[in-house]
Amino acid sequence: SQPHIPATNSAAHLGTKEDPAHFVVCHVSAQSNRMAGGQVKCLSVIGFSLICLKMAYSKISNSITVEWATVPGATGYLLTARDGNTVIETVVANSPGTVTGLKAATLYQITIRSISPAGRSQASPPKQAKTVLAAPILQVSSPSPDSILVQWKSVYMATGFSVSIMRANGLGRIWKENTTNTSLTFTSLDAGTLYTIKAYAWNASGTPGDDSTCNQRTGPRAPANIQVSFDSGSLKASVSWAPTEGAFNYTVMALSDSSRLSCSTTFSSCTISPLQCGTEYLISVLATNDAGSSRSISAVTLKTVACAPGRVTIQEDPPGHLSVAWSNVHLGDYYVAFVKSDDGLEVHCNTSFTQCNFLSECGFTYFISVFAYNKAGQSPLGDVFNYTTAPCCPGDINPVLVSSDRVEIVWSPVRGAELYETKAVDGFSVVECNDTVPACTLSALECDTKYNITVYSFSEVRGSNTSCTSRFITTAPCSPEIKNVSKDAFSMINVYWRSTNDEATYTVTAQGEKGLHRCSSTGESCTLWGLPCGSVFSVTAVAETPAGRSLPSYSVPLETVPCCPASLTETQVTQSVINVSWTVGTGAQTYVTVLESHTGQSKCHTRQNHCLLGCITCGINYTVALKAISATGLTADCGYQSYSSSSCCPLEVKLYRLGPNGIRIYWQASRGSANYSTDLYGSKGIFTCAPSAGLSFCDITEIPCGDVYTVMVSPVAETGLKLTFCPKKIYS
């Protein structure tokens, strides 16, 4: 209903904020094209500024781009796309602006408002714009090495599709096809090559929509020129072929009536194993890449070696003649039988039949094997059979070890013996051992006993040869049993044992960290001398006869008393406390220290090597005793010289002034005779006075006045050491 304004290219500003002005609104008629434009209509509005919307167009199926003339003073713009009841808004800063999140192939009404600090303007006259078609969703595959099939679902509002293909590396030509179908096949392509496919739909007006791009490789060509090399020893086949363009890997398949084998590789050769003997295989090669696979057109036939002949039978009839027979095998052209004796001599026969005859000798073991042959080679090794003639008796039986309960004997091997049976007889007692080697260990025998030992040879076919001779062997003596270990007053160790041996010599050994100590006897006791103190020993006894030595007896532990400390020192700590210290005694774990006088006893028990003893009476003599005690309670009594405690501190110490620079110190002598020393300690010096013998006072003169002194009277030890623990007086 508003009057038309002559067309212009943009909105003209006609006033200011203080003077409401006329503004121009531009209407642009829509065109049916991807970039729509049209004639501009201008409206005169009082107040807020309306916008001249130049054009709206769609390049992507989910968005529409809008262009407009900039409005002075605007801080942003509100774009609105309306589709029926659906409204989508977007705020942008400048022209052009894009509304996203739209539906493909859909007609929208587009309006725009400017935003300024004063608010929003009125919406511009609407402009219609339609989103382009959506991109087709492609499904591609390579049905053959020279073709690619492209398929897609229908696209809304689409009337046709355009599909193009080219090499992914950009080389070569581009194929482009238009179609109204939903599938298309490109042929005459290169095998094993990666191609790029691009497709888009267009609508009735021919406007193209979004495009879709994907890559697809063509399948490889089928392998050719297949060569097969068979290894009869390891039953494997090496297969090679000409490389195929575009193949990522190859799979070789070997098919028979009963099995299926394969191997895979990225090279042009592969090894299949293990193949079965006596089997015919068809071998083919499959080339594969990410597009599919191609199998070789023709298969190669491979015949493997025959299997080893079975049901082999061996007979000795008459003695001295061996007859070897076997069953016929598939794919076997002829046979070879080998007979090898245990002395290394080997003979064989070559035949197209299934039997061979050989000469044999007594006392030998023969190893027999049969092979089948064809053009592929020799059959695998089958079972190896052995045939043994009657064995001979073992000779030169020798004992290599004789103990109290075992005898180990060896002898030279004899021909034909598969097993040796050894018997040891003692009256009605029999001990046996069977073994396949020419050696035997007879165990669980009685000690110090004479046995009659015989070795028989045995073969499963012939049995035992009972004409073999025997020999006598006596076992080693029995182990003695230690009954008692005692210690006499002279620190000698007496060991007593019990034994049932005849004419045996016994050796007793005491072994410890400080060495070995031995004694020997033919009786049932002996004496060990000179064992060091503070040591632990393991005492064992061994019996010996001409037949050998017995096992050691069970060990008996022996512990000697701990060693006394080498030195002991007493130090007076206070008038009634003494610190006693000593060196470590070997083998001692704890110590008991005792100081004793007529006035009483002071005692301590400690794990350390020093101890404080209290309640000591000053000025008297003490006897000093120390006990070293082991972990098991063994005690060593250690004696040391007596100790005299320090003299007692003087009593009733009094101070008298002698003029301004002198002082007399008086005291009462304590129990016992002692020499005393008087000391004054001040900030200006130390002053000492030693009284004449028999006097109990001392004068100190010429001391500085105006000072505070600490006065102490202390007894002097015989060594001249002054004791410092007596009480002190203060003198000013």
Task: Provide an overview of this structure.
It holds the Pfam family fn3. It comes from Balaenoptera physalus (Fin whale). Residues 134-221, 222-307, 308-392, 393-478 form the Fibronectin type-III domain. This is Fibronectin type-III domain-containing protein. With 732 residues, the protein is an all-beta fold. The protein has eight domains: 55-130, Immunoglobulin-like, CATH 2.60.40; 138-218, Sandwich (Immunoglobulin-like), CATH 2.60.40; 224-303, Immunoglobulins (Immunoglobulin-like), CATH 2.60.40.10; 313-389, Immunoglobulins (Immunoglobulin-like, Sandwich); 398-474, Sandwich (Immunoglobulin-like), CATH 2.60.40; 481-560, Immunoglobulins (Immunoglobulin-like, Sandwich); 568-645, Immunoglobulin-like, CATH 2.60.40.10; 651-731, Immunoglobulin-like (Sandwich), CATH 2.60.40.10. 0% of the residues lie in helices and 52% in strands. It has no helices and 63 strands. Strands 5, 6, 8, 9 and 10 form a five-stranded antiparallel β-sheet that branches. The chain is flat and about 145 Å long. Mean pLDDT is 86; it is low at 1-48.
